[in-house]
Amino acid sequence: MDSVERGRDDREEFTRWARARQQHLLRVALLMTDDVSRAEDLVQDALTQVAVRWRKLRDSSPDAYARTVVYHGNISWWRRRRGEVLIAEPVEQPALSEPVERRVLVRRALGALTPRQRAVIVLRYFEDLTERDAAAVLGVSVGTVKSQTHLALRRLREAAPELAELLQEDSR
User: 129: which of 8, 104, 133, 150 fits an S-S bond (Cβ 3.0–4.6 Å)?
Assistant: First the structure.
């Protein structure tokens, strides 16, 4: 196989992977940011970085690399803007169905977390990563993941007591 064919095969393989994973990465980014535009930008950046490194990543874990890019991109954004304080006046919402209301409560409660705590919760409970895998994505120790998870769950319980049954700590 010549280099032109190999390059075409690499592009096709990456395109299939990106199409299959893009929506999932967007959901992860949206949970971490609660901002559609920023989530889309983070995913676009992650896909670009995976594409550039596709030959190296395709046989290892492009998903893990993309998650790491999303997380680090979000933390970098947060650090650049942490001096800003944006306050939105709450808009009165019409009555919602129970599943929608629960989703809204969870999103609001996630907003009470620091970016690292939010990332730990998303990686551990939405992505269903082990403590070790979450630590690898975040570039921290397993002990840090454990302590951040504990603190985040406590903050979530305080921010949304009506979701307490969902927020029971377990042996994850």
Answer: 133
Q: Which amino acid is at 84?
A: E
Q: How far apart are CA 109 and CA 80, in angstroms?
A: 23
Q: Where are the domains of the chain?
A: 1-87, 89-172
| 27, amino acid identity | R
Give the DSSP per-residue string, 20-58. HHHHHHHHHHHHHHS-HHHHHHHHHHHHHHHHHTHHHHT
Structure tokens at 106: 């969870």
Q: What is the CATH number of domain 89-172?
A: 1.10.10.10
Which tens digits make up the pLDDT trace of 90-109?
A: 545 444 456 667 777 778 88
